[in-house]
């Protein structure tokens, strides 16, 4: 009827909550679906009232008599409604999914099981034993599904898969089933309209987007992809969202495939044709569409019609959210991005240096040859709803200098080979990826000094984890047959230890049989490497925001840590007691005048490590970066024994101090070379 009076609905829902005990399963499904309808029609009902109603529905569903009478339709509708309301109730979902296993498949309508898969994708549920069953249901009914139903399934599978950079469990469980869905889709190709080929439709938040899904799932049938793209090219009227999604699909294919994507025409011809039409509606398009199309063109290095320049000009006139602003910063090379770690190769005869940064680049430099190469670690993704775009937090060389271990803020760790031929690091050199290592990001990586295949990681969850990379290989003895639906790669750490309440920021393995860790806003802890039992805790002190980095000097006689405000502390190691003696601790305060006093840290700055300081040792000295936008002195060289400054790193007169901040330093392993590497 179109009534949108908020107070009326608040009163009605309150009455429903009071009388929920009288409801049967059909009533509960109807109420849940009504709450979704109000949201879709933008009726601004009190959020607390909606949550209370959802809680009451969940409580009723858990009753045995309600569960016994629950039909297939009602069980799906309740789960789907909770997903649309963005209410995660795993206890309820678990009960309803178990119920679905017992219900005869014939009782489900063809469109209902795709809704369950949508629930999985909304809440990113990848590792559930019911997933194969749901995919079986979908494949068995695909022949009688509409193309909209099939496309909805593909979108959900793509959303479950899109944050992964390697083969996922979802892919292994459903590879042949995914192909079966596409085969059914091909038969219905002639009836498919452009909106199903390249568009999200906002009346249900997210509906069919075939091309986007095929691109995200790396579907390799060139003939079918070509046919889809030709249909797009032949369409005379395309809306803004469809343009964004088609360019997103092209970007996915071009970043994963060498050569031309299309068979019937050159990719550049299609993109230019689409851009010519898109530019006519660009200035009337939503922010996300403008940002997404410009980002795709940037990744594909295709800037016809000045699409990036024109997009930035239009976005400069608008109010942007955090995600949109961060993409604008990426386009403009914003000065706030920084190198989060820079290191020389550990081999004394090498002249190779590597750096990683908050823009997601891995940068290689051959200092002798004066050559460099950049690899865009995150070029294949566009994170539509992520308020913190992923960035590279740390990396480490293997002991042989032949591999690099890179960690990122979304919890991934990749192992890549360094290709000395042309000093290129590219996707062909990627050896393996460990997914979801830590909640809150993987902030530091540290390979074992004894074995390159043993890797330690620390994360935003405060955990210290040890990984055996040999078990990650597809050739290890724990790896099941690839055709086995239950097969999955080994993805668990050998050991996991909750080391700190706050994020774990740095790890050192230089003391034999010991692991030294530190945490933000907390302290330093020394652990027995064999038993993982705590041996010693060193308080960092209440006057600092936390310990950001630590190192143990080469003689293993001192432990040095640096805090957020620039303070440095040293601790003497006593071999007799096998501990770092706190009694000899000294604190070295840097004379930064107004440099630190005027520093205002925003919440996202700490997440992005823009103010991070990575220290290094230079003989008996310590090199520590400092944060000062105005001063030309960008790093101090301090004697670790006396605490006195012996030298500094400064930008020359021709350089602007604001553009020369240093966040990470390293010293060449051969002291005769005398080189210090800095990144900022």
UniProtKB/TrEMBL annotation:
Entry keyword annotation includes Repeat: yes
Matching SMART domains: WD40 (SM00320)
Sorted UniProt keywords: Repeat, WD repeat
Pfam families assigned to the protein according to its UniProt record, in alphabetical order: WD40
Any one cellular-component term (Gene Ontology): Cdc73/Paf1 complex
Start and stop residues of the WD repeats: 435-470
PANTHER family for this protein: SUPERKILLER COMPLEX PROTEIN 8, WD REPEAT-CONTAINING PROTEIN 61
Name of this protein: Uncharacterized protein
Organism: Theileria orientalis strain Shintoku
């Amino acid at each position: 009827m179109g009534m949108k009076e908020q107070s009326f609905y608040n009163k009605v829902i309150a009455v429903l909550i009071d009388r929920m005990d009288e409801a049967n399963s059909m009533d509960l499904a109807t109420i849940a679906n009504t709450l979704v309808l109000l949201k879709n029609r933008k009726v601004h009902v009190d959020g607390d009232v909606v949550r209370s109603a959802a809680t009451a529905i969940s409580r009723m569903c858990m009753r045995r008599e309600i569960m016994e009478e629950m039909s297939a339709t009602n069980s799906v509708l309740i789960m789907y409604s909770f997903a649309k309301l963005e209410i995660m109730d795993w206890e309820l979902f678990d009960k309803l999914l178990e119920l679905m296993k017992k219900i005869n498949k014939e009782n489900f309508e063809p469109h209902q099981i795709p809704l369950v898969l949508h629930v999985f994708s909304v809440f990113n549920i990848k590792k559930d034993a019911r997933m194969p069953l749901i995919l079986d249901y979908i494949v068995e009914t695909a022949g009688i599904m509409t193309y909209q139903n099939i496309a909805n399934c593909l979108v959900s599978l793509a959303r479950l898969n899109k944050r992964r950079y390697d083969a996922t469990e979802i892919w292994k469980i459903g590879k042949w089933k995914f192909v079966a869905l596409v085969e059914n889709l091909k038969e219905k190709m002639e009836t498919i309209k452009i909106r199903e080929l390249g568009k999200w439709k906002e009346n249900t938040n997210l509906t069919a987007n075939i091309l986007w899904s095929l691109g995200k799932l790396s579907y390799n049938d060139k003939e079918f992809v070509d046919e889809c793209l030709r249909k797009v090219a032949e369409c005379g009227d395309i809306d803004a969202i469809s343009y964004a999604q088609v360019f997103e699909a092209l970007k996915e294919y071009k970043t994963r495939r060498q050569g031309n994507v299309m068979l019937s025409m050159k990719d550049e011809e299609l993109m230019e044709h689409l851009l010519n039409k898109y530019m006519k509606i660009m200035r009337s398009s939503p922010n996300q569409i403008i940002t997404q199309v410009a980002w795709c063109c940037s990744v594909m290095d295709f800037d016809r019609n000045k699409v990036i320049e024109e997009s930035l000009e239009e976005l400069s006139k608008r109010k942007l959210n955090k995600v949109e602003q961060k993409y604008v910063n990426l386009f403009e090379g914003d000065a706030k991005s920084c190198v989060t770690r820079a290191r020389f190769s550990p081999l004394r005869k090498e002249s190779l240096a590597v750096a990683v940064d908050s823009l997601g680049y891995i940068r290689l430099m051959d200092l002798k040859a004066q050559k460099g190469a950049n690899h865009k670690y995150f070029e294949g993704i566009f994170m539509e709803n992520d308020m913190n775009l992923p960035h590279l937090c740390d990396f480490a060389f293997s002991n042989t200098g032949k591999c690099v271990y890179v960690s990122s803020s979304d919890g991934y760790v990749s192992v890549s080979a360094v290709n000395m031929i042309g000093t290129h690091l590219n996707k062909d050199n990627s050896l393996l990826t460990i997914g979801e290592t830590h909640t809150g990001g993987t902030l530091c990586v540290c390979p074992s000094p004894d074995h390159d295949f043993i890797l330690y990681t620390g994360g935003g969850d405060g955990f210290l984890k040890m990984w055996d990379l040999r078990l990650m290989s597809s050739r290890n003895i724990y790896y099941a047959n690839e055709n086995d639906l239950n097969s999955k790669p080994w993805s668990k750490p050998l050991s996991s230890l909750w080391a700190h309440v706050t994020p774990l920021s740095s790890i050192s393995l230089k003391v034999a049989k010991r692991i030294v860790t530190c945490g933000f806003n907390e302290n330093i802890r020394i652990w027995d490497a064999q038993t993982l039992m705590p041996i010693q805790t060193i308080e960092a002190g209440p006057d600092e925001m936390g310990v950001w980095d630590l190192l143990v000097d080469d003689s293993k006689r001192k432990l040095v840590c640096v805090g957020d405000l620039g303070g440095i502390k040293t601790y003497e190691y006593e071999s007799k007691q096998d501990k770092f003696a706190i009694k000899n601790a000294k604190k070295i305060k840097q004379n930064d005048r107004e440099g630190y006093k005027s520093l205002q840290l925003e919440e996202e700055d700490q997440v992005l490590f823009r103010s991070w300081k990575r220290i290094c040792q230079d003989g008996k000295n310590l090199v520590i970066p400092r944060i000062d936008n105005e001063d030309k002195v960008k790093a101090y060289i301090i004697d670790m024994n006396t605490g006195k400054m012996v030298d500094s790193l400064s930008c020359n007169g021709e350089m602007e101090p604001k553009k020369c901040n240093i966040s990470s330093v390293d010293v060449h392993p051969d002291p005769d070379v005398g080189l210090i590497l800095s990144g900022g």
